[in-house]
């Protein structure tokens, strides 16, 4: 008969661990408590307070918002002002254009990096694409401003060709600079997505008789789509909300400008009301993107 | 899939063009950092190190730099903790509302910064919280959480559970397994996620503009002010150039860390 | 004890008088304590220099050394922005222009000032004290910083002779399309109204800041026509860049930009056209719940001291606040006070200080209604952004 010798009693952390182990739901709740509380209170709570402001009145002369003084004045101003519609359409159009531009620019370079370049070149290219992200966002925009301004670098290049540069007024400047700013955000997810495609799939495709073009169209593109959509989340939403770029390189206003201008003028109700527009658009976009599997490729 | 030679040449040329596009403003920036003129007209009028000397002697820039570092470290720490917790919860358990977590976490980064900024500042004001470095960190942490979350989640998905199971089979409790098995396995994700989050926080200006008080100035806030003050404009170029050059280090590190996992995949 | 009673009564009265702070308005402190170590100000860019731009112009560092009050500044882009910032409650003071002052007073954001606590106030020009924009019923709500006019700046290569009217930015803007530089703020509507006072007297505009529906719409039409040819500047730096690169050759400006450009050797000059112009008279105001009131009072006294007022107004390009300041300015920039008409009240009668558009037209006639500041801001958004 063997006698079992009992070991030392389990320590408190171990007992807690054992206790938790038997309660997976509690474990889950504890894990998620911190992040959800943060996002819920700090973020969603603030958004709610902001949106409530959209329904409150403001005294014009003193400039103060009167809480709980319910009023639809802000929304009435927005719906009645043609400028707000123009600005919204302009912003959405540029956001779509910037996304398309960036996809067209990013895909070939991402493809090259993922499937054609040697490992050393690939490593170099990844660093090369990442580096501009580390340059200050503000300074990059200001740099473009000096390039695009009247008699700036662009004008001096176009002048011998007899073309007039856009100067600092046109909306085309915003499209150009925004496409520039978010390009790395599109290259990297597409690169990651293309890289994940197993070589075996492509071999199988050519074994089955498909030429490179067909393989590209019917195998690579569909597999890369979630990554493209993931990248587009950045380019679309970042463009939709940006106000610094249009204010520095153009004469036109975007949705972000209206929100910013009104908030710095103390007109929070109007800023809040107008904020509903990009919020709704982006949430809808995110839901569609999630459907298309983009969240796994972020 | 063997691409034809022409396709390869075309891709290489295209890559070159895109890289030129990406670096054009940075080159212009470098040129202006040495340009003696205060007004950034083209072409540059000469070469000088005057602005570098001015930048080095400006205590405000140094202070802004440290403020940015502190804010970045604080925000990154909070983001890593919260992001890891969320990733562990999402990856380990199947539950209702799982997809919603990812959705909620991505919102702060997907919704316009100006909306987040106005929302946070209005709320702080309504509650009566004093603006300062803490409010900046809170703002930054909020949109950095998703970065940590994504990186850790991706890593957890690729990590086999077998090691953890073996560990608990051998008698280790949850904390020990986490400390000795899970955490080291996540290390690369934590590092690359942390680096990315830090980068995002360091360069953030829109939300920061709304959440910093009058006495708090990060580097981007200083730049924002300086580009509106005509005589400080050239110094901005110097500061930006130095920051880009300094950033080679973390980018290289991030690539090395991320690169390990990437090459394993192929 | 009769002999003691009389002095006792006098002493009591004296104590009562001191306690009531005779001379100190309600809401203002009666005495100053030590500095609190910090001071947060909202300023127009260039109003609080600490030598970063030009080592010779620094009136903040000496103040910090003397009082121990560490100064933090935030630039406002225009007056509504300044009002909004002040109402956040995070700042102790603001250098407010006339279109912000009354709003700040009416909303209870700023406190009246006990000028007895500011020794340098006594020397300020009478023409700047107790004005409509910085006082209410004889109670001062701030101390003046300086005053100046919005000027017409032009490239001397394109316009060898100084233009005599504002037509260059209005009717003749098309001739320089894309090269007209305009201040990006709703207050600029008043400049359009000012021009209409000259070109369309039938509209009956008497005050460019109080416009009824018809007058307002006429001004907006003028601005819409101008916007096709205009480039807008929000900060001084933007306009300086714009003129230096010769992207714009004519526009509205503050003397400050011209000073910087001429200092860089650029071919620009400024002039005040014959019709007159809009302008500003800026007042330092203190927040009603300022966290650092002692430092703010010390700052107000500091900014009124002759050397500082001279430096600040020479730097920015405006008229200083006292004769002593003029004398000091003479050393820094000979002829400064003549150039800026510091003692010429008649000159300033042709300058319409920025003022707040009010729904009741700021007059005693109940029948008149005007567009209020929100209407101005909304209309401006449409002009610039549409």
The total of helices of chain B stands at 12
Largest interface (C-beta under 8 Å): A-B, 100 and 97 residues
Q: Helical residue percent of chain B?
A: over 70%
Give the termini distance of chain B in whole angstroms.
15 Å
DSSP strand count of chain C: 14
The CATH homologous superfamily of the largest domain in chain C is termed Periplasmic binding protein-like II
What composes the largest sheet of chain C?
7 strands, mixed
Number of helices of chain C: 14
Using the alpha-carbon principal axes, give the shape of chain B: globular
Strand content of chain B: under 5%
Instruction: Return Rg of chain B in Å.
Output: 23 Å
Number of domain units of chain C: 2
Q: Find the structural class of chain B using helix and strand composition.
A: mainly alpha
Quaternary class: heterotrimer
Secondary-structure arrangement, i.e. CATH architecture of the largest domain in chain C: 3-Layer(aba) Sandwich
Order of helices and strands of chain B: HHHHHHHHHHHH
Q: How would a textbook summarize the main sheet of chain B?
A: none
Description of the molecule:
- The complex is a heterotrimer of chains A (298), B (266) and C (386).
- Chain A has helices spanning 12-21, 24-53, 73-80, 82-116, 119-134, 137-148, 153-158, 171-195, 199-207, 212-241, 244-249, 255-264, 268-291; strands at 56-58, 65-70.
- Chain A is mainly alpha-helical.
- Chain A is flat.
- Chain A starts with 11 loop residues before the first helix and ends in a 7-residue tail after the last helix.
- Chain B is mainly α and 266 residues long.
- Chain B has helices spanning 5-33, 50-56, 59-92, 98-110, 113-127, 133-158, 162-169, 174-203, 206-211, 219-226, 233-246, 248-265.
- In chain B, 50% of the residues are buried.
- Chain C is α/β, with parallel strands linked by helices and 386 residues long.
- Chain C folds into 2 domains: 8-147 and 281-348, D-Maltodextrin-Binding Protein, domain 2 (3-Layer(aba) Sandwich); 151-253 and 363-384, Periplasmic binding protein-like II (D-Maltodextrin-Binding Protein, domain 2, 3-Layer(aba) Sandwich).
- In chain C, strands 1, 2, 3, 4, 7, 13 and 14 form a 7-stranded mixed sheet that branches. Chain C has a 5-stranded mixed sheet with strand order 10-9-11-8-12, covered by helices on one side.
- Chain C is globular.
- Chains A and B meet through helix 1, helix 2, helix 4, helix 5 and helix 6 of A and helix 1, helix 3, helix 4, helix 5 and helix 6 of B.
